[in-house]
Amino acid sequence: MKHKTGVIIAAAGVSGRMGHLDKIFVQIGRKPLLYHVLNAFQQCSFVDQIVLVLSDGNLKRGRSLIKRYGFSKVSDVCAGGSRRQDSVKQGLDRLLDCDLVIIHDGARPMVTPELIEQGFDIAQKHGTAVAAVPATSTMKLADSGDYVVKTLERDNLWEIQTPQVFRCDIIAQAYKDISDDVTDDATLAERTGQKVKLYLASYDNIKVTTLEDLYLARLILKTRGK
Fold first, then answer.
1. HSE value, Cβ hemisphere, 13 Å, CA-based, for 43
2. What backbone torsions phi and psi does residue 9 show, to the nearest 5 degrees?
3. What CA–CA distances, in Å, run from 87 to 21, 197, 215?
4. Strands 148-151 and 140-142, how do they pair?
5. Sign of the four-CA dihedral 185, 103, 35, 28
6. 118 in the Ramachandran plot: left (φ > 0), alpha (ψ -120 to 50) or beta?
7. Can you give the pLDDT at residue 219?
8. 3-state SS class at 145
9. What values do phi and psi take at 198, rounded to 5?
């Protein structure tokens, strides 16, 4: 029996560090940033359903983009909440009988079908799979006065990305049990006692937050010949 896989694209944030630009609709390689995100998941044969979560003001524009490019796997476009996790919860509520859930930041346009498939394969075995890359900078722990407490061992430090893949019952239970503010979905799962499996992602899988990130995304796309 085929397992159903749903995707939640969390793209309801405010582009606070992009000036007057709405980053998810900024052009990268002559197409909107959000196009590249949706296209990567549309290409994955194992993806059955995509829920796109946007801000209230972007719902109409988002639906228009989906229609224009024929993203047939997008089943719902809904408004997000005040926090990222509230937005993801809106997406979870709209998934239909899925066994696996893939959660991805709408501001990570360099994600590839291959990276998504890696997470899908690992989550089928372990119940969780979170894209990450080893930390490359020296990391220091500071106190409230900004004095260094200690230097952390970089060998075991990872920078967390998305996609993050979970067995549906695991992430649903995490969202039911934990209401704390968190910056990613894996943290919710961790706080329920769930072991979270990391898998090696790519340094190219950047999150577009600033104008500099946007320029870098365009350069990465160009090097890929797209």
1. 13
2. -100, 115
3. 21, 23, 27
4. antiparallel
5. positive
6. alpha
7. 96
8. coil
9. -90, 150
Contact 214, 26 (CB under 8 A): yes
Encoded tokens for 1: 């029996």
**Is there a contact between 24 and 217 (Cβ–Cβ < 8 Å)?**
no
Tell me the two tokens of residue 25: 């609709």
Per residue in 87-102, pLDDT tens?
999 999 999 899 999 9
Q: How many CB atoms lie within 10 A of CB 182?
A: 17
Domains of the chain with CATH codes: 5-223 (3.90.550.10)
Nearest one of 102, 58, 61 to 79, comparing CA atoms? 58
Residue 1 has pLDDT above 70, yes or no: no
- The single residue listed with the structure tokens 């080893």 is 134
The pLDDT score that the predictor gives to residue 225 is 81
- Cross-strand partners of 163: none
Return the bridge partners of 103, or none: 8, 164
What would the mean pLDDT of 48-76 be, rounded to a whole number?
Answer: 97
Whether 226 shows a pLDDT value over 80: the answer reads no
Q: How far is CA 150 from CA 136, 146, 155, 157, in A?
A: 17, 12, 15, 14
Structure-token match 């075991």, residue found: 156
What confidence tier does 21 reach under pLDDT thresholds 50, 70, 90? Answer: confident
Under 8 Å between Cβ of 115 and 105: no
Length of the chain measured in residues: 226
Given a cut of 60, whether residue 22 has pLDDT beyond it is yes
The token duo for 82 is 């005040």
| 36, 115 Cβ separation under 8 angstroms | no
